[in-house]
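Sanity check

After download, print the first record. It should look like this:
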Amino acid sequence: MKILLLGDYSSLYKNLKEGLVELGHDVIIASRGDGFKNVARDIDFLSKKKGVLGRIETKILPFLKMDKLRGFDIVQLINPFEFSCKNIHPFFFYKNIINNNDKFFISAAGDDSFFWRVGRKHLRYGPFDDFLKFDLRKKKFWMESETSFSFNKWVVNNSNGIIPIMYEYEVSYANEEKRLQTIPIPMNVDNVKYRENSIESKIIVFHGLNRYGFKGTRHVEAAFSYLGKKYPNDLELIIDGKMPLNKYLEIMNRANVIIDQTNSYSLGVNGVYALAMGKVVMGGGEPESIKSFGVNETPVINILPSAESIIREVEIIMEKRNQIGGMGYSGRKFAEDVHGHIRIAEKYISVWAKEEAQRL
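Expected structure tokens:
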């Protein structure tokens, strides 16, 4: 099949592409590279110009390159709002995509209006309030508006289906007929070096700093403040981020324990990557999330958005320091079995084919 992956978040589609290509499909990624992450893509929607002209050109490049976005068997869009901004929604762009390709699917991933308006009501906790307070510094997010919700609904209704990447988005689209099977985040584990998780003197715990409010970093800070004072000779606690990838990976390689997100039921791409590396991962491992993936257990140490939850779990890890190597190996196996890029690519192909059979 000829497949267009439109947009990308944290290499999610890059990993999916690698699985699809290994299965013999022709795959193109068209994206802006997801900001400072500069994720690899085949068609670039990011302007090389600086300043205002660069920002304007970045917004219009998808429209200027629409001739390259035609003739695909499958188009999979990362998020309905990937090519929109506040109060400006690209109906024309999506109509062109829908009319000039065979099938059009959407991933439920990242911020969208259903997540903010529906998921927020049904999840026990989430990133919403902290994101507004610390990241956006506003009382409302434009994703919550009726205009945004109507646009989101229009894109979903005009698609062949929406595929959640985790439980949070599954519940956000629970009442939508177009919601399809939840498919976990893909990870090309062949490209992630596994190393036995061994401790030298101190247990190193690392939390990547990115989207402070959304990821619940304030809870990690509070926990580290307490733990650092209580166990100065036993723990090395690191919060850092927004750095070159090679430096970020260098810290991850040194760490024994990775704290992903505190506001999530499930792991993000960074957490899955850490599992593949053989790290002990703390983050979203709620029972609902595990069930949505069709598995019975997870090596992820589930934490709640509170310093007390993090402190408790770190202290338990300290008591089990002799088991950290085995815990890291279990994480690697989970990444291979649940998130392996070829397995996930096969799931997408199956869902695309199943939807086609149902439609016919």
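If your output differs, re-run the checksum step. Summary of this record's structure: The mean pLDDT is 93.
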